[in-house]
Amino acid sequence: MHTAGRTLPQLLTEARRWFEEGLLAAMEEAGAAPVSPAQAQLFAVLDERGTTVSELARRMGVTRQTTHQAVHGLVVAGLLEQVPDPASGRRRLIRRTARGEQTHRQAELVLERVEDELAARIGRPAVDALRAALETPWGPPPQLRP
């Protein structure tokens, strides 16, 4: 049972924002192309070989229109490209460009530093426990009655 106040989903959302803000500020300071939080999230859920817009929208929990807008901005910035899907002549895959791959690697290093900063603030055991809890399979969402 949780105490009154913020729910676990609210806390998880705040934690994600904390990481995003640290990431985006560090990337901007390093001279990377500025991106929105939605674009950063899209970048994070993209497969190495490429991903369809529909699948990106599903992973992000947003509409295809929102995903198209985020993709377009990242294509214009030279970080993503659209290529034909070899498995289907009708679909296109979104994937990182060489510059996008470099930016992605840089972002991964920044996120490691942000996590280290979190460990310095709340302790490495707490961060390790949080990671372990989030990496543990939870199974499908429960089907609870109202």
Description of the structure:
- The protein has 146 residues and is mostly helical.
- The chain has one domain: Winged helix-like DNA-binding domain superfamily/Winged helix DNA-binding domain (Arc Repressor Mutant, subunit A, Orthogonal Bundle), CATH 1.10.10.
- 61% of the residues lie in helices and 10% in strands.
- The protein is built from six helices and two strands.
- A two-stranded antiparallel ribbon has the order 1-2.
- Helix 5 crosses helix 6.
- The two termini are 17 Å apart.
- The mean pLDDT is 92.
What's the helix and strand layout?
Layout: H1 8-29, H2 37-45, H3 53-60, H4 64-76, E1 80-85, E2 88-96, H5 98-122, H6 124-135
Helix pairs in contact: 1-5, 3-4, 5-6
Strand order of the largest sheet: 1-2
Strand element count: 2
Give the H and E element order. HHHHEEHH
Quote the average pLDDT: 92
Helix tally equals 6
CATH class: Mainly Alpha
Q: Roughly what fraction of the amino acids lie in strands?
A: 5-15%
Which overall shape is indicated by the principal axes computed on the Cα atoms? globular
Structural class: mainly alpha
What fold name stands as the CATH topology?
Answer: Arc Repressor Mutant, subunit A
Return the CATH architecture: Orthogonal Bundle
Query: Low-confidence runs (pLDDT<50, min 5 residues)?
Result: none
What integer value in Å does the Rg equal?
Answer: 18 Å
Task: Characterize the main sheet.
Answer: 2 strands, antiparallel
Q: How far apart are the termini? A: 17 Å
